[in-house]
Amino acid sequence: IDVFLARSLLEKLYLFQYPIRPASMTYDDVTHLSAKIKPKQQKVELEMAIDTLNPNYCRSKGEQIALNVDGTCTDETSTYSSKLMDKQTFCSSQAASNVSRYAAAVYKKGELHLTPLHGILQLRPSFTYLDKADAKHREREAANEGGDSSQDEAEDDVKQITVRFSRPETEQARQRRVQSYEFLQKRQAEEHWVHLHYYGLKDSRSEHERQYLYSQGHGLAENTELIKSPSEYLMMLMPPSIEEENDKPVAPSNVLSMAQLRTLPLADQIKILMKNVKVMPFANLMSLLGSGTDSTAVLRCIQQVAMLVQGNWVVKSDVLYPKDTSSPHSGVPAEVLCRGRDFVMWKFTQDRWVVRKEVAAVTKLCPEDVKDFLEHMSVARINKGWEFMLPYDEDFVKKHPDIVQRQHMLWMGIQAKLEKVYNLLKEHLTPKKQEAQSAHPLLVSGEQRVNMAKAKVKQNYGQLEKEFQKQKAEMKSNDTSAKMDVSNIRIKEEPVSDEEPMDTSAYEGMNNGIVNGLHAEEDSTDSLNGHLPGGCIDRVAQELKAFVSSTFKKQFVLTLSELKRLFNLHLASLPPGHTLFSGISDKMLQDMVLDTGCKQILVPFPPQTAASPDELKVYALWEAGDTYDQHRQVLLEIFTKNYRVRRNVIQNQLSQECGEDLNKQEVDRVLKVSSYSIVGLIQLIPECLM
């Protein structure tokens, strides 16, 4: 079948869809009384006659509707002049927003003629006559009410009028007003109706217009659009939907997939990676570039867009802040931002830690810009500063000393420029830690330190146990040989001394309770029962006494729990094979505390406290040999009566016991000097000194 494209009615042909009517009434029988259109809105309004003689028409209903609309009087303004609803109005609405894919086809003598549609309109009944009936009803009621009121009452009724002056309309308010429903309705109402003349189906004018549905020329020159290949023809008939294309996810402009990245030149790949990552070890960069990439070429390209800091590559400042750009926070030009960021990078070449306030004081930049610089290459640590985010890459430094030397020379030049611009002092030029670049500093958390100390104690204890078993075996062999030569041994008798033997009661319970810093095995309890080599017990007592004395001179008040914690830390700092690794029990530690001049303070803690038994045992140094011993003893006596004490009670008690009339400043000085004891007692429970 040959297909032809008719152009005569292009942008003039509409398709009207009428509502369903009874089978006994067709549209051929309906008379169109009037028609009008608004071309811009593609809105049509048709007025069609109703067959009142049709058996399906209800005459009484038609008369009632005409009476409600027009009332009893008939004039030119009446909707139904025949006092009968004999016509109906239809209003159109667009059935489809996009009609470019629709056409009207006429088949004739083996030829198909297509005419594109300019619009598809659905006609629906309009009930505006009901609104007219309501309006007339309201007018009649208003007239009745107005007739009852007198002229005098109307004159006496004074109403207050509020006068308002309009303000200048802003651009944003104007846009909201233009997009409002009220404004759009007003614009649609302003368009004038264009009245049309209706020609029936069998009219000669209709026959003439119908001929325009056929293509006027059958020559190929006028139908070049249809001379296409089969695939192009199908594409014209069924073009891809715009909505389907919009549904495809679109990647952000700053996101590039690895597959797309591999298609770029090597220099562009490295620049994009460094611009997004900002800090990267060389090994990670090689893994991202894929296997087979020449490392020499990568080194040549990376030096163009990045600088070496602690063995890692950091993107250059001019890559992040190109020329003719400015800060989004302060509006500072790119040159000033690059200088400030170079100063931060240079500081990290000198030390692993950088203080934000120092950078802000030198660069004179706003805090937001300084924070951006630091976040590019470091991580904030509480109460320490900003630490470089990657560890020192010692492998790269060893493998590429020539690159390291070249980068060092570049940093020397940058340092010289920074000295001139910022007038750097010696404290800024001298690194705090010279070993920052020579070796990777080891950062160990508190939990790791405790685990390392426990492992060290176990290792040292194993060595001591082996040495003790060896000495024990030697002693047994010596005893055996002594029994063999007992006849040759002469025992020298010495007079018995009047002095009492050394009191070892403090060490009788050495194997009782918890062993501090040591987990004793069941088969090695001999070392805790006094069977130590000669003189070992004395050395243990001396070392333990020295530790307890020095600890209580620094902190006058300690709980047993805190003392054991400090002792474990002390053990972790001792070298392998120290005598204190032989094992110290809780009882031995408490006895040694009492022997060094300390006393146990019986603080009346509340019964609902969640403290452990070791935290409830409080020990304090009673006499330290300074001028505040008496004041400290008074404070400790106060806390034996109550765990919460007010300042005025402390002041009165100190004045009575010490015989001095202390004012507030003197009490503060006493509390400051004796603050160790007070703070130690206060920190035992959540409740504090009031």
UniProtKB/TrEMBL annotation:
Region: Disordered, residue numbers: 134-157
Protein's name according to its UniProt entry: RPC5 polymerase
Pfam families found in the cross-reference section: RPC5, RPC5_C
Domain of life, per lineage: Eukaryota
Biased composition (Basic and acidic residues): 134-143
Segments traversing the membrane: none
Organism name: Syrrhaptes paradoxus (Pallas's sandgrouse)
Cellular component terms per the entry's GO annotation: RNA polymerase III complex
Cited InterPro entries: RNA_pol_III_Rpc5 (IPR006886), RPC5_C (IPR045576)
